[in-house]
Amino acid sequence: MLSISRRHAIQYVHRPATSFKRYSSQKFSFLRQLGIEEENCGVYDGGWFGNGPILKSVNPTDNTTIASVRGGNQNDYEKVIGAMDSAKSSWTQTPAPLRGEVVRQIGDELRQNKSLLGKLISLEMGKIHVEALGEVQEAIDICDFAVGLSRALNGSIIPSERPGHFMMERYNPLKGHVGIITAFNFPCAVLFWNAALSLVCGNTHIWKPSESLSLTSIACNKIITRALERNGFPGAISSLICGEGATIGEALVQDKRVELVSFTGSTKVGRHVNQVLASRFGKSILELGGNNAMIVHKDADLEMALRATLFSAVGTAGQRCTSLRRLYLHSDIYEQFLQRLVSAYKNVRVGSPLKDGVLCGPLHNKEAVKKYLEGVETIKKQGGKVLTGGKRVEGDGNFVEPTVVAISHDAPIVQQEIFAPILYVMSVNSLGEAIERNNDVPQGLSSSLFTAKQAAIFKWTGPDGSDCGIVNVNIGPSGAEIGGAFGGEKDTGGGRESGSDVWKQYMRRSTCTINHSDDLPLAQGIDFKSLKEKKRLEFDELLPSIKPPCYGPEYRNRVREKHDQTSIYVTGPPFIALPEIFGLESGRIRTDADRLGELGYAVVLVDLTDGDYVKEVDDTLPTWIRKHLWDSTIIRHLQDAIDYMKGEVHVERMMSYGYCWGAWVGSHLSAMENTPILGHVSFHPSWIVENILNGEGAVNELAKTIRAPQLLLSAGDDPDFIQRDGSVHKILIALGTIGQYCDVHDYPTMKHGWVTRGDLSDPDTHDAVFRAWHEDALPFIKELCPV
């Protein structure tokens, strides 16, 4: 049998308990203790001002004006943001525990003013005094939570898979400001849910409150800014702008300087806010509509469920985001529970929120009363039966009767949230059906199940249970504690406010990897191809698979082929390859490019012949080389290659190598380029250097212009071919005289030119080439430019 104690019944009257007149100056005395006058400025950026429209604060118990507030306009908004920009750095750079100390002092001031603030909230919003005091206590509690949090804004230390690496997460204040837009029903608590956390996280915030709750907003912001200024911080850290949502609210949402916006309000407006923020990649916390359900299973403690139903549905006159809207009763208890519920409703006392014993105060304004009455008529048209209530209470105030309705779950009105004390009651045959009905609405804020079965509890809270952000058991959907994250799913919006790890939304999260080794491995276990003589892995893709870009006459009029530098890990400085007089037809120059590529060096080939090849070696050769060496077209090809290396590959330091006369072009490149490009490896000295320089004495002059080490590899028949025996040694001597590092290696089995005359199929020739690279050239290169 269902048994409900009568001691929980409350006297119900059909008229307000007290008829209020306009407040006298004596009645305003408690408001003055909060810094509220009959006329107030509603914009704060370190000082109080306002140039926007006049906002009237109206007492919902009798619809008389309490006081007025001069709100802000667009120019005022810009002034506030400018002050916040100036104030931000001082707060961001303050250590978090010191920021927490300021928030502790804010909490202490809230304690000192709890009674006064609670009375103001009841006067201006209309919720009963005990609930208003509870709201202020929420603000105090979240300040206490934030104080502790200020010493625990810690990121994770993450084990790195790479040796000699340290990985961690770090949280820093947001680069932009935080915007807070609050609704009328919780004018104090929701501000502090956001502001207390945002402040300890090092942010500045701008608050745009409901225009009908401007007095409470001014009082709350004065408490915050007194603590800030007392500690030497600019008041603009906590800025306020009262004003109309269509102007001030829209400006705030559109402003890229406001990085995060926390919005509490209707789903319709919240959807617009979300779209605007998404279009500018802003961050959002949305706390929108709730169509909250409670399920009473047949094994539940019915007396406890009845008390929870009454408070959750009637408290704050049904104007909480978490107010109970839908009640699903198991069919076995439906009739008995519903009978007791209707009886309890008829004993609810409606009246002044400041009078003891009142459970249901007024709706906030006349528009809310209108929507309540329209909702009742729609319910009737859709087959619903009003079991109690459903009427406006006669008088000057915005009082309505708490209403219980028996209705089908399929009625369209059940899908909607009416912000008033209207409760839909429906019957279900099983827990599974009840969960399905709970989830079968667009909103997803809060939900509740009353049961004694452990299996039902875990099903309800599990993946096949409630789809809401708040999932309660054996308490109603209202009355969330600050320690948990508050927010919902689906059309309720997204993001969370209040406790838990909500603070992370107010910070910029960075993953930091610190390499304290002398190696550069990649993650994900990527395997590098390593050289046989080296155990360390050094590159993730070989260059030989990609054709090197070429610069020269036959390439100028078509798209150049370039390295894909996004997929190549270049471990050493690039090379400019300078072929001999036979140009790029020389296969050896490309083979050498491949060898360098295997070591992680990028290579650019430059054709310096301009297509005019020398067919015979005779006395005209020095003249031909001199002509082409200084020919503007050839130099342009060379400059193209240099510009590519600097502009496309983004390197400044390069090396060059060349055969025959190409080696000496490289020497002149070293002399002409007054940059770190001077690294030069010459793979064959030219016997004609003296002819090019017009005289033996010019060798010393050339040597003086070279600012990089030289490596000269001499073929075995060079002394015969050179005709001027000793020119190689003369330049080496000259380089040594000025202190430059230089070296020469002789290969007796090689022919002059290496490429054109050496028989690479001959084992001796192949061995010489191999030794030239691996024994002489590569050690020299690695010493100059280690990979």
TrEMBL record:
Residues 55-509 form the Aldehyde dehydrogenase domain. Keywords: NAD, Oxidoreductase. The active site is at E287. Its EC number is 1.2.1.3. Belongs to the aldehyde dehydrogenase family. Homotetramer. PANTHER family: ALPHA-AMINOADIPIC SEMIALDEHYDE DEHYDROGENASE (PTHR43521:SF1). This is aldehyde dehydrogenase (NAD(+)). It comes from Albugo laibachii Nc14.
